[in-house]
Design a protein that fits this description.
about 425 residues, alpha+beta, 8-stranded antiparallel β-sheet, 5-stranded parallel β-sheet, 13 helices, globular
Length: about 425
Amino acid sequence: MKVLVIGSGGREHALCAHFMESPLVKSVMVTPGNAGMKETLPELKVENISVTDTEGLLRLALREKIDLTMVGPEASLESGVVDLFREKGLLIVGPTKKAARLESSKSFAKKMMQKYNVPTASYQEFFDVEEALRFVEEGLLSKMVVKCDGLAAGKGVVVCHSKNEARIAVLSLMKEKLLGENTNHIIIEECLEGMEVSAFALCDGEHFTFLGTASDHKRLRDNDQGPNTGGMGVFSPATIVSEEEQEWINRNVFHPMMDGMKKEGVPFSGILFAGLMKTKNGFKVLEFNARFGDPETQVLLPLLNEDLTPWLVASAKGELPQNKMIERKKMKAVHVVMAAHGYPGTEGVLVRSGDVIHFSKSFNLSPYDFLFYAGVSKEKGDLKTKGGRVLGVTSLAETYTYARAQAYDYVEQIHFDGAQYRTDIGKCLL
């Protein structure tokens, strides 16, 4: 079959690499991709169409006779690409625009969790800045989380440790329009405390199969310091989730959400990504995402012990096999991200592009190690940074200690001016 991957980051690079290993796949195309992908996947075909240009993506799929399309970023789902492809009878992995509201509308997600008894933090929603400020000042919460209702490129959630911080967050979002004019609708919820973990399920509208867990490191600097980012590293499987707890998550999170979405007339297919907090009272859902995570995909896919392609086809067709689990390697994975100077651009420093990426002469990946590119361009034969998260290295091993050591050995052999990376990804496991 011919496969199309929509997106341009490390997540999409990992998806392309997985598809190219599949005996079912004849060719793989990515759009818009990035210049680094062909460095490791020379046979990959790259087109330059925006992830939100749904008509352009459809024309590409029809012209190239694509058999299966895999959606990477949330912006594509929000633009309705799944709806359009399905109208034309094309197989595509992902939820419809309405079903993707589990990610694109925090209000919708909270209401669904409340209605179908999925454990989550208590909350209130606001459309008026004065009402929100009054709730902050007069309410019982001393710590709270202020969230923009819609998609905000990972910048719409502010964890506030005092009422003053919450007041500033409300004013920044609703009055100063820090994220644009679409922030008239916010949610304020109790601040949960505990350890975070991500859990993933592949869904077909009625059933699901568990894909795995991962623990992401969101803060820019070591010891969880600095601003929030899209993710500076990750390890999998998550050590704080036992087999019994995994079953609990299936039973109390994924099952009721799948049943609820179907009852509401918006069945969910594709990847359902639950961001969880393990509190003293058990797991609670922080948020849902309607697609694979980045950088979680870069550890989840290498840990699979079988081809995910037939499972993705089954998801798109609404035919996931029942009572069958996806086989995973009995190994550990650690992924370390290297980001551009100034990333994530929230500390008054411009995110820089154009720095040449150098590799040591001894840089040589083993079959259990992977290099995934994200924010890169190519000029006169040189790979250069293109802002944001530039690349990431994944290493698999029998133990977290060795996987971590391997990943950092590779990272130390890569250099570009202003490179930022954490030195403590997975350190908590030692």
